[in-house]
Amino acid sequence: xxxxxxxxxxxxxxxxxxxxxxxxxxxxxxxxxxxxxxxxxxxxxxxxxxxxxxxxxxxxxxxxxxxxxxxxxxxxxxxxxxxxxxxxxxxxxxxxxxxxxxxxxxxxxxxxxxxxxxxxxxxxxxxxxxxxxxxxxxxxxxxxxxxxxxxxxxxxxxxxxxxxxxxxxxxxxxxxxxxxxxxxxxxxxxxxxxxxxxxxxxxxxxxxxxxxxxxxxxxxxxx
Amino acid sequence: xxxxxxxxxxxxxxxxxxxxxxxxxxxxxxxxxxxxxxxxxxxxxxxxxxxxxxxxxxxxxxxxxxxxxxxxxxxxxxxxxxxxxxxxxxxxxxxxxxxxxxxxxxxxxxxxxxxxxxxxxxxxxxxxxxxxxxxxxxxxxxxxxxxxxxxxxxxxxxxxxxxxxxxxxxxxxxxxxxxxxxxxxxxxxxxxxxxxxxxxxxxxxxxxxxxxxxxxxxxxxxxxxxxxxxxxxxxxxxxxxxx
Lengths: 223, 243
What we know:
By secondary structure, chain A is mostly helical.
């Protein structure tokens, strides 16, 4: 299974497929910079030289993604804004370290944002443990979408992306889906997940892995 | 060198890519990643799948975020992928050749391993390392360290294996980790990264470069660096016994 996964993925290092993939996932790019398509990779290279204007452009492409991840994981909107800020500053600071052989800028940004969000959730959880207080997530203030209200094309692509991802997620087994959701969206470790799902530790690791491989295949096929 | 892992460590790639690991597992896996091309590929691909999940959650941030980030950027220095550094001070430490049982870990390391890690497999791995015929322990030294801040290194040249155990460490700033460096011909070679928890931290690596003559620790951004970006916090010569 994994070797098939590797083979498929390795074909995506093909420049043409990569460009295609970037066009699909980088839909914000087309929406924001419709006149001159500048890739996130190109912008990040300029950011690495200290170019603040390039960073502002990159911010516009990455912020919904980064904020969305933070919001989904930490749940509390004000905390999500704080964590997203930290993550975006990390992108600025660490721009020189980005390695384009190891995936897209968007995937890199998600890694940074997700790690920040997970660290916050875990720190909060241990603080709550200590203080024996209940951390209440706010009921979920919807942020205004003024910035993208005019961005009809972008919104449509975003909607289709969501449908596609959800369809793929629905094809996972319950255990795969639960393990991945608890890991990615609740910031739990595989050990904790084994406890909440009441399954052996090794099983969770395997379900996360199998589930991600299947998701990768499903999302890849739909592209 | 290839000490049998308690579990197949390759199986951790997916959980690692989703951050579904604790600090000890992360340190272990990052050490493993340094020398496993297959896992580096897997992690990159699993992260591209995670991107798919994340795209599903994308939403417009409050307008205040943009102003806050851009103004912060104007006053935030960027990390530079720095050139080589040299260990400022070289220390000679007496060699202690040890073949000890786990019970003497307290005496040897000055810390209770159970405090550092509650993972029995890690405690056993350190015990096994200490039992290697050529195992040495050295103390890490650094400038202006608080008196209760300690770093110990257990090292076996024959096994190319090292354990670094830190005690009394202050909490790391957000987004920062400790990274171990091997000094090879006075050039730093990246080692694993790790994060203190409750003042303690531990890292193990079974891929110590054969020519490593010293180790150093620096603070680096999460994920580690290819070359040190901050001054050395602690360092020590390694005493390759039997050479």
